[in-house]
Amino acid sequence: MICSIVPPYMLRRLAAQHEPRLRAIARAAKESLVHIKSLQAVRALPVPIPVPTARQAKPGLPKRTIYDAGSTENLPGKLIRKESGPATGDPAADEAFDGLGDTHRLYAEAFGRNSIDAAGLKLDATVHYGELYDNAFWNGSQMVFGDGDGQIFQRFTKSLSVIGHELAHGVTQYTAALAYRNQAGALNESMSDVFGALVEQYARKQSAAEASWLIGEGLFTDAVQGAALRSMKAPGTAYDDDVLGKDPQPDSMDTYVRTTADNGGVHINSGIPNRAFAVLALELGGNAWESAGQIWYNTLSAGSLPATCTFTRFAKATVASTVELFGTGSSEHDAILKAWETVKVKA
Predict the structure, then answer these.
(1) Which long-range contacts does 40-49 make (Cβ < 8 Å, 24+ apart)?
(2) 23 CB-contact burial (10 Å; exposed 0-12 / middle 13-18 / buried 19+)
(3) Order of all β-strands in the sheet with 64-68
(4) Measured between alpha carbons, how far is 347 from 339 in angstroms, rounded to an integer?
(5) Mean pLDDT of all residues in the chain?
(6) How far apart are CA 210 and CA 288, in angstroms?
(7) In the chain, how long is the greatest CA-to-CA distance?
(8) Rounded distance, CA 69 to CA 330, Å?
(9) Contacts of 77-86 spanning 24+ positions with Cβ under 8 A
């Protein structure tokens, strides 16, 4: 499964630009769109490794390896840093290395999970992928980061939430294996946003109230009127720019987008469950990786989510996890019901 961080609707908007000053941007966006589509067409969904309970294996130390594609599309590329090696001085390589470590740490310390597959999977990443490549993606076995076009996007390793987001696709691959289409696909994307945000908050020691709840913060250049790719707390408000347009994410089922584009709107409709999680975390207060994060992680890793899971099915599963963890009538139980009610999903 190829899962990329930049939504196709954003890339299509960039690809349609005709002004001379935006020609390089348009070309980079077109190439990214064609590339991701071609990869998705030839790569089948990997068969997940069954993990009845992700807490069985005791977490070990991370096993990170960073490669440099040298502006080509050859993977994995030239080896430039191993787990025991010193910093390279290359910002992209060292940011990727640190981000892999931060992600491993969240799963190990907050959820007792031993790497992405719960069995100590090596964490490999390639930087400097392609020329002016406007994306980052998980290809089913490793992370891949482009350097951006320099006018709209900066290098994709600059945002820790992006690194956490893409690695979370691997966690989903090894747990629920949510199909990358329609509401199940939007849940797949939302899971990655949730855990991407938690990686960033855990690394920065931020409470739910202190966190920005932005996904991809720091990716845009100063030329863009926007803060990030998406806002979990307020979907639809992440950017409003002359070139990119306005963030189109809905914040409840009242404005759910019915479309056949992007596998049935997997990136655009992820804003709905994203907001539900942010509402829950802010309602409970404290650190989001604790109560709220435990509910989401328990739901994802329990093995009960169907591949074609809907928002309603997922909401009911989170309520069941809340009851299992905290009991009926608990403050967590009241908060989870409020969260789903806020986004108009029946739980």
Answers:
(1) 40/2, 43/1, 43/2, 43/139, 43/140, 45/1, 45/140, 45/173, 45/177, 45/179, 45/180, 46/1, 46/140, 46/141, 46/173, 48/173, 48/174, 48/175, 48/177, 49/117, 49/119, 49/174
(2) exposed
(3) 3-4, 136-138, 143-146, 123-129, 64-68, 78-82
(4) 9
(5) 93
(6) 10
(7) 61
(8) 51
(9) 77/126, 77/128, 77/129
SS (H, E, C) 211-262: CCCEECCCCECCCCCECCCEECCCCCCCEEECCCEECCCCCCHHHCCCCCHH
What does the alpha-carbon distance between residue 326 and residue 90 come to, in Å, rounded to a whole number? 45
Catalytic residues: 166, 267
Q: Residue 143, exposed/middle/buried by CB under 10 A (0-12, 13-18, 19+)?
A: buried
């108009």: which residue's tokens? 344
Give percent helix, percent strand, percent coil of the chain, each to the nearest 5.
45, 10, 45
Q: What is the pLDDT of residues 117-137, one digit of tens each?
A: 999 999 999 999 999 999 999
Q: CB of 175 within 8 A of CB of 187? A: no
Q: Is the pLDDT reported for residue 226 higher than 90? A: yes
Tokens of 78: 């030239």
The 8-class DSSP code of residue 58 comes to P
Residues 201-222 have a mean pLDDT of 98
pTM, full prediction: 0.95
Q: 72: which 2 tokens?
A: 């080509």
Chain centre to alpha carbon of residue 222: 23
Percent share of the chain, pLDDT over 70: 95
| Distance from C-alpha of 16 to C-alpha of 198, rounded to nearest angstrom | 34
Q: Which amino acid is at 125?
A: A
State yes or no: pLDDT of 2 exceeds 80. no
Q: 57-71, 212-226, 230-244: lowest mean pLDDT where?
A: 57-71
